Amino acid sequence: MKTKITELFEIEHPIVQGGMHYVGFAELAAAVSNAGGLGTITGLTQGTPEKLAAEIEKCRGLTDKPIAVNLTFLPIVDKPDYPGFIKAIADGGVKIVETAGNNPTQWMPVLKEHGIKVIHKCTTVRHALKAQGAGVDALSIDGFECGGHPGEDDIPNMILLPRAADELTVPFISSGGMADARSLIASLAMGAEGMNMGTRFICTKEAPVHENVKQAILKATELDTRLIMRPIRNTERVLTNASVERVLKIEQEKGQDTSLQDVAAEVSGVYPKVMLDGDMDAGPWSCGMVAGLIHDIPSVKDLIDQIMSEADAMIRDRLRGLLADKPADAA
Ligand SMILES: Cc1cc2nc3c(=O)[nH]c(=O)nc-3n(C[C@H](O)[C@H](O)[C@H](O)COP(=O)(O)O)c2cc1C
Known about the structure:
This protein is an alpha/beta fold and 331 residues long.
């Protein structure tokens, strides 16, 4: 399949793995890129520019295909060393960055100076237009269904993607709730040039997370995610557990007066405990509603191959078969 995204990023299939805290290590990024998609190392997870440089080098040892690094711009006072992370990315020869969180405008000149293509992930058309104005090469449009931070507007992809198609001039991919060939075909139909997946990629053989995490997603249905930190406008979609229920109780009691301090003990330092140690009740961790569509733990290559072959069959057989006036070669 050739789309504007496969051409822009020089990849075989229009499938991207989004940056994921304590999941996006070299092993997963390389597996996705080797399978013909675009794998992404999560920058901030590595902790320091030096460690990010080492992770990029490790990934380079595992694949010679294009890879990306995710840079999540956090709205906090004590900012990570973003210039250092960008230098590590450029020195490591990585040519694609997925930005997320805050608007990337401030970082565009230095990224472009290094010949880096930028795909900005955001949850509203308004933010997408702003990033497009700042010169990003592509957008990842993250619907309300998504695992992680869906923003505060709550627009699901059935509306958000066609809205993006109506407004944007740069190519975009769908993100949030994507799992299989049906997701890909629906995304293409709504104007996207490919799709981004997070939660689905956690349930793969190569995802370097504790087995308990994969089993928790397999067990979960589409009813098992919750939105936390809504009162502080830092909404996160997480898989429910005892800690999540405690956070929601605090938020219910304090209402709009809830502050980060009120929930900090539950939400801080959770990811290594969940993802590396498999302590599933250590705190809230991001997970998409798409858990309801995930029933196996394939290799990344099997997952991507299956998506692409089913997408091919869906276009050739099901969709073409629906045409009253079929093209001659589809008869
Ligand atoms: C465990 C987990 C951690 C994530 N961490 C990040 C992150 O650090 N930065 C980021 O930009 N997105 C992060 N995301 C969002 C994903 O990159 C992706 O946009 C999202 O998972 C798409 O929704 P889906 O899970 O329904 O596929 C995370 C998602 C998950 C599930």
